[in-house]
Amino acid sequence: MAASSLDVVGIGNALVDVLARTDDAFLHAQGLVKGTMALIDSARAESLYALMGSGIEMSGGSAANTIAGLASLGGRGAYIGKVRNDQLGAVFAHDLRAIGVRFDTPASTEGPATARCLVLVTSDAQRTMNTYLGACVELGPGDIDQRLVASAAVTYLEGYLFDPPQAMAAFRRAAEFAHGAERKVSLTLSDPFCVERHRADFRDFVHNHVDVLFANEIEICSLFETKDFDAAARAVRGECEIAVLTRSAKGSVVVTRQDTVAVPAAPVAEVVDTTGAGDLYASGFLYGLTHGRDLDACARLGSLCAAEIISHIGARPESPLKDLAAKAGLI
After folding, report:
1. Is the domain defined by 6-12+61-109+138-327 classed in CATH 3.40.1190.20?
2. How many helices (H) and strands (E) does the chain have?
3. Segment 166-224, tens digit of pLDDT
């Protein structure tokens, strides 16, 4: 197998986040379930945006956040995702390229606008997301660059992308290209409601195509239809090479066919916004994995990156993660 020129290529929903603070009463009035992601149409996106308080706009998307975190650690990343040739699409592309991430997916010249996610953050730091997929639904198998996937040690797939109709075909093609080049395939389950919508497809894809799985406690329990985390952890053993299960303040558990590695959460002075915690955990873990670290070190890197991201508003690092990791003796 030839040496990889990239550490990770991420494939996901390319969107711009709009973050605003709110309260439980607003969520209730709008019929929103705290801490989850709901898909909305363009009309709902416009009406909800009009009701939101002043917000912060920044490029986002789960897999894109992970690749941004990887770049902040000094890793070599690329991204595949669909935007429209509009203002938000240009902003999204610029933000990734400016931090050293390769982004070559051609923008759509017609059809839906660039996607956006309206993120409502409550005082308990929970984020409730409302996503208009827009141009994301245009991503299909033809957008998967075989040479790019083959050049990356890991291809990282975003579970949110299971919702658009062509996504499964695109994911299967990406997995085919990655494994054909003797590379690894990684998947994040993304959201418990997403798992409920696509449980059978997720189970099949994990079993047949995934080497490294990321899931939080609720997601992995949903995947295996149990309320018992330990039962879910047992069920996932052997379904893939590595299952990385995050448990918020309880830390994380890494499950392989032979071992279980438990790592505590990294300390954080104040939890401000949990947006992107799982995304950035994946950044740290995948950086460690692609740089030869053992599973304990990978999980500690993940926890460190998650702690940085929840200490401020937004899902992109404010402090260079490479410096934080070096100070902690992890790289």
Report:
1. yes
2. 13, 14
3. 888 999 999 999 999 999 999 999 889 889 999 999 999 999 999 999 999 999 999 99
Q: What is the CA 267 to chain-centroid distance, rounded?
A: 22
Q: What are phi and psi of 255, to 5 degrees?
A: -115, 125
Whether 136 and 115 have beta carbons less than 8 Å apart is answered as yes
Secondary element (H or E) of residue 7: strand 6-11
Phi-psi region of 253 (alpha: psi -120 to 50; beta: other; left: phi over 0): beta
CB 286 within 8 A of CB 321: no
Digit-coded pLDDT (tens) for 15-31: 988 889 999 999 999 99
Q: Which two tokens stand for residue 178?
A: 């990655």
Instruction: Tally Cβ neighbours within 10 Å of residue 139.
Output: 25
Q: Kindly list the domain boundaries of the chain, sorted by start residue.
A: 6-12+61-109+138-327
Kindly tell me if the per-residue pLDDT of 103 is higher than 60. Answer: yes
User: How far is C-alpha 171 from the chain's CA centre?
Assistant: 15
Q: Name residues whose C-beta falls within 8 Å of residue 295's C-beta, 6 or more positions apart in sequence.
A: 242, 254, 256, 259, 261
H/E segment holding residue 175: helix 167-180
> Residue 181 carries which DSSP code?
T
Is 293 a residue whose pLDDT tops 90?
yes
Which of the four pLDDT bands, split at 50, 70 and 90, describes residue 315? confident
DSSP letter for each residue of 87-155: HHHHHHHHHHHHTT-EE-PPPBSSSSPPEEEEEEE-TTS-EEEEEE-GGGGG--GGG--HHHHHTEEEE
